[in-house]
Amino acid sequence: MRILIVEDETLIARDLAAALTAAGYVAEVEADGEEAWFKGSTEAYAAIILDLGLPAVDGLTILKRWRQEGVSTPVLILTARGSWVERVDGIDAGADDYLAKPFRIEEVLARLRALLRRASGRAEPQITVGSVTLDPRTREVTVNGTPSSLTPLEFRLLNYLFHNRGRAVSQLELSDALYSHDHERDSNAIEALVGRVRRKLKADVIETRRGFGYIVNIQPK
Ligand code: CA
To answer: What distance in angstroms lies between residue 20's CA and the mean position of ligand 1's atoms?
Structure first.
């Protein structure tokens, strides 16, 4: 099982990775918040250990973005000692459990096991709209059963629209959800991206609502 460790403190990250590897997991370490967000929303991990105190983009922001995008990977947050505010904010933002620093590795492993046990019963089902089926766990999209090769960004667009189906999503909301940097935010880019996804799917699941944005209808025409 692959576990993503998001931690900028090298020593802690190294100890965690070593302990997880020894326990039979495949551990990946990421120190950069933006990179971690991207990996968490494009790759399939069994769970994520997320330090809230990261430089540049903090852990809470990343967690909120994942949950907004429909990423339901179980997340164990690492918070500063005694900071109950962080714990409350973290759980409100969608964390499944927390550990305050400093922690014992044994406790991390125990909590991780509990998290994975709980998650196995609530794995998110596939979402089907018309001929298109999206599997949030495997990040796979099929059209009439045939796999479609979407890029990670294209998948995220479709994933976001599928999770918000039945509601018009504006271009601004989409660029907030898909891009991390302001300079990438551009309505033409969203339009082009939607166009590429439509062409690849060859199915009319994304409709344009003039003045409102895009909508995936629950019951497509
Ligand atoms: Ca830190």
So the answer is: 19
The pLDDT tens digits of the residues spanning 115-127 come to 988 876 655 678 8
**Residues 169-176, mean pLDDT to the nearest whole number:** 87
Q: How confident is the model at residue 180 (pLDDT cuts 50, 70, 90)?
A: low
Judgement on whether residues 6 and 50 belong to the same structural domain of the protein: yes
Instruction: Compute, in angstroms, the gap from residue 134 CA to the centroid of ligand 1.
Output: 34
Counted domains in the chain = 2
Range of the domain at 155: 127-216
Decide: helix, strand or coil at residue 134.
strand
Q: Which residues lie near ion ligand 1 (Cβ < 5 Å)?
A: 8, 51, 53
CA 5 – ligand 1 centroid, Å:
11
C-alpha–C-alpha distance, residues 12 and 25, integer Å? 17
Contact between 69 and 92 (Cβ < 8 Å): no
- d(CA 208, ligand 1 centre) in Å: 42
- For residues 48-80, b (16+ Cβ closer than 10 Å) or e, as one string? bbbbbbbeebebbbbbebbbbbbbbbbbbbbbe
Q: Are residues 115 and 135 in the same domain?
A: no
Please give the structure tokens belonging to residue 166. Answer: 């039945």
Q: Do 6 and 97 fall into the same domain?
A: yes
Q: 61-79 pLDDT, tens per residue? A: 999 999 988 888 999 999 9
Structural contact between residues 29 and 5, judged by C-beta atoms closer than 8 angstroms: yes
Residue 164 lies in a domain: yes
